[in-house]
Design a protein that fits this description.
α2 packs across α4, α2 packs across α9 and α4 packs antiparallel against α6. About 70% of the residues lie in helices and about 0% in strands. The chain is mainly α and about 250 residues long. The N and C termini lie far apart (about 65 Å). The chain is globular. The chain binds protoporphyrin IX containing FE. The site of protoporphyrin IX containing FE (HEM) has 25 residues, from α2, α4, α6, α7 and α8.
Length: about 250
């Protein structure tokens, strides 16, 4: 297929002979797979991040484990740069695929708003949550991932807390946390409905049950994320006079 032909397919959803193209379905599938992978990543990320609730030493040890300390003496922060680069590439690719579904003019957006008010349909509202949180994450997630790629050595109980408290990154993290938790779990719920994963014999009942589980997970993850952010803030506040000094492990004292 020539590049011109594939562009026509991508834009019109039909091939040059007017038959329905398979490209939109493939792009939809790719959007689901990348979205699911990213949601899984965030689920573990927020759990790992909460190691700070178990103390500075716990967060330090986990950071060093991700730097490959069991295999490389002292750890190698470049491993974090590489990991962040892979996640960043997937994040941008997922956003690029999602952009196809943005309303592409103000008139289209207004038409959507009227439709939303008329229908009061919860799935239309979910789509709105996805679009707005996705838009916010595009900027906030990019800032965060760029920092992680550029300064991977500045991750740790004091370095992270200094960044969050003294460098005033907490408002950014707060907004990112709310956006990412809503976006990930609402996204997973939409996948459950779209692919009918747990429909079983009674789809209506099982979809209701899925919705309840998703709502509980949103609440739990928001609480956990907020608790971790508060712990970083507290450490950052106590450490402000020593801003910039690094944490020394209890094993190295
Ligand atoms: C490999 C990639 C990533 C690494 C290495 C990483 C690392 C970190 C670290 C070390 C923190 C603690 C704060 C700090 O040191 O500045 C943090 C917090 C956070 N990250 Fe990431 N991150 C990654 C990807 C992402 C992505 C893709 C998102 C969402 C788009 C995300 C969302 C968050 C949020 C919301 C927080 C605050 C957590 C909380 O309040 O508990 N991170 N991340």
């Amino acid at each position: 297929m020539s590049q011109k032909e594939s562009t026509v397919e991508l834009l019109t959803g039909k091939d040059c002979e007017g038959k329905k193209s398979r490209i939109p379905a493939k792009l939809d599938w790719l959007q689901s797979v990348t979205g699911l992978f990213l949601a899984l990543f965030i689920t573990f990320h927020i759990l790992f991040e909460s190691s700070i609730l178990f103390g500075k030493e716990a967060m330090y040890k986990l950071t060093k484990m991700f730097e490959g300390e069991p295999f490389i003496e002292g750890g190698e922060p470049l491993i974090i740069t590489a990991l962040a680069f892979v996640i960043f590439s997937m994040f941008i690719f997922h956003a690029f695929l999602a952009m196809r579904k943005f309303p592409d003019s103000y008139t289209e957006y207004q038409r959507y708003r009227t439709h939303r008010k008329l229908l009061k349909h919860s799935d239309t509202n979910l789509w709105f949550i996805q679009i707005t949180t996705g838009f916010a994450m595009f900027f906030l997630g990019s800032i965060h991932l760029y920092m992680m790629m550029a300064e991977p050595e500045k991750i740790g109980p004091y370095a992270s807390s200094d960044r969050i408290f003294s460098d005033w990154m907490w408002p950014m993290y707060l907004l990112l946390l709310i956006s990412v938790v809503l976006h990930s779990w609402v996204g997973v719920y939409r996948l459950i409905i779209k692919w009918g994963w747990f429909d079983g014999k009674d789809p209506r009942k099982n979809r209701k049950r899925s919705k309840m589980i998703i709502k509980t997970l949103i609440a739990l993850y928001l609480l956990l994320g907020l608790a971790s952010l508060t712990a970083y803030m507290k450490i950052g506040y106590e450490h402000q006079d020593d801003y910039g000094s690094r944490y020394i492990s209890e094993n190295h004292k």
